[in-house]
Write a structure and sequence with these properties.
The chain contains eleven helices and 13 strands. With about 290 residues, it is α/β, with parallel strands linked by helices. The chain has two domains: about 5-110, Tetrapyrrole methylase, N-terminal domain (Cobalt-precorrin-4 Transmethylase, domain 1); about 115-285, Tetrapyrrole methylase, C-terminal domain (Methyltransferase, Cobalt-precorrin-4 Transmethylase, Domain 2, 2-Layer Sandwich), CATH 3.30.950. The strands form three sheets. It has a six-stranded mixed sheet. Strands 3-2-4-1-5 form a five-stranded parallel sheet, with helices on both faces. The protein has a two-stranded antiparallel ribbon with strand order 8-9. This is diphthine methyl ester synthase.
Length: about 290
């Protein structure tokens, strides 16, 4: 028997591949990973389209109870559905290694990921440098390490894809210390929230005597619900990104590097201020 790692796509229930749908229909158990990303439709819509019951696999299930997912996978087929591509998060590599250790055959079925779908904005994929994650700051924890990676990409003329934080089934520090299974409401970072944090870092660096490579006038691209029918893209300066409203999750942001003329022309389609230069790019539905 086989453990399958498949993908549900980026947008809605119909984004699954034909091969993936065939696997879902014949597997004994089908898990849906529900914390590294989300679709624009709920579990019920997926179940209706797939014709199968899905088992939600949250962070606790995947990271602490992974062996339960693989239980009896040597006797029956088990599927693990991921939004995007199976290897978009290191957690999913861990499942493969566990399957191999247990002698369970596995098969991976690929699909679209935000890592390649961002090409919809017109920036060429081979001009991207290291991808970074922008995390929610707290009153006592404001890391800036991702900014250094963005600056390194910028210095090398490369674009940076910023994956924005998702908080699903998270516990407050107080409830965690008390052992209470009480969870916070889901939170999804927006482009304007990410831009505000980056602007704060720019100011911090100046106060430290630095002149950052990334500034308020650096060209950026905001993307929301990539792959969905209501996908939105907006291009403009980092300062403009702090005020853009792109609607519901999920959001991503790109810090642009050196650009080819074709890339500039493409970003003008989504410019927030059409009367300004290519560094001041209009929000538009696509």
């Amino acid at each position: 028997m086989t453990a399958y790692s498949g993908v549900a796509g980026l947008g809605d229930a119909k984004d699954i591949t034909v091969k993936g749908l065939e696997v879902v229909k014949h597997c004994r158990r089908v898990y849906l990973e529900a914390y590294t990303s989300v679709l624009t439709v709920g579990k019920e819509a997926l179940e209706e389209f797939y014709g199968r019951e899905l088992i939600l696999a949250d962070r606790e299930t995947v990271e602490q109870e992974a062996d339960n997912i693989l239980k009896d996978a040597d006797l029956c087929d088990v599927a693990f559905l991921v939004v995007g591509d199976p290897f978009g998060a290191t957690t999913h590599s861990d499942l493969v290694l566990r399957a191999v250790k247990l002698g369970i055959p596995y098969r991976v079925i690929h699909n679209a990921s935000i890592m390649n779908a961002v090409g919809c904005c017109g920036l060429q994929l081979y001009n991207f440098g290291e991808t970074v994650s922008v995390v929610f700051w707290t009153d006592t924890w404001k890391p800036e390490s991702f900014f250094d990676k963005i600056q390194k990409n910028k210095q090398n003329g490369m674009h940076t894809l910023c994956l924005l934080d998702i908080k699903v089934k998270e516990q407050s520090l107080e409830n965690l210390m008390k052992g209470k299974k009480i969870y916070e409401s889901p939170r999804y970072m927006s482009v304007n929230q990410a831009a505000e944090q980056l602007l704060a870092i720019v100011q911090n660096r100046r106060l430290q005597g630095e002149e950052p490579e990334v500034t308020e006038n650096t060209l950026c691209v905001g993307l929301a619900r990539v792959g969905a029918v209501d996908q939105k893209i907006a291009s403009g300066t980092l300062q403009q990104m702090s005020t853009v409203e792109l609607g519901g999750p999920l959001h991503s942001m790109i810090i642009a590097g050196n650009m080819h003329p074709l890339e500039i022309d493409m970003l003008k389609l989504f410019a927030m201020d059409e009367s300004s230069s290519e560094d001041n790019e209009c929000q538009r539905n696509t």
